[in-house]
Write a structure and sequence with these properties.
231 residues; alpha/beta; Rossmann fold; 6-stranded parallel beta sheet; globular; serine-type endopeptidase activity
Amino acid sequence: MVVVPHGGPHSCSTSTFAPGIAFLASKYAVLLPNYRGSIGFGQASLNSLLSRIGKVDVDDVMMCTRYVIDNFSVVDGDRVGICGGSHGGYLTAQCTSQYPEFFKAAAMRNPVTNIASMITSTDIPDWCLGEVMGEYDQSLYCGPTLNQITKMYEKSPVSLVHRVKTPTLIALGMADLRVPPSQGLEWFHSLRSLGVPTKLLKYPNDCHSLNLVTTEIDHWLHIRKWFDKYL
């Protein structure tokens, strides 16, 4: 089975057709968890994720995954992968670092890995402050404080990267202004230094969504091959 947490985090997975997901589903069971903070469940549920990323969203993804393993005999609990982009990439990194023995393969696209460094280079610094601190007042913004940077680092996967054992494929749009390529590069070089199997895909003309036709085809083919190798 492949778990695919959505990005945002304030968006949601739906039952509409998605080519990449359909491609994965041609061989693997695919789980699309709508964790706390996803839209469609009311404002209180959406707001419940603010200042709690890396905890409640991870808890929900793991709860859904374990439920499916325990209740659907077709799913092999020893062959579970995880794949996500943007905040889904953040969750992929968090899950493989917090649960280093659970996932046998991972793939991420333009992942958020270090919010403390991302805030000074992203086009949405308000996202960093809002998701980590729970609030954001643009009129007061003059750069992150030491306290804010510390909390951002603590809620970032990079703080636990030393625990990762899962083979990880990383795809980056080198023109991404939302989650700069440095985020994925930091994760890639960290995994290499730890001896964790990893591979880096660079797409020089792509932005955050990696939606050029040739890129999308190449990207999903690599993801499928990666899971075929390690699951």
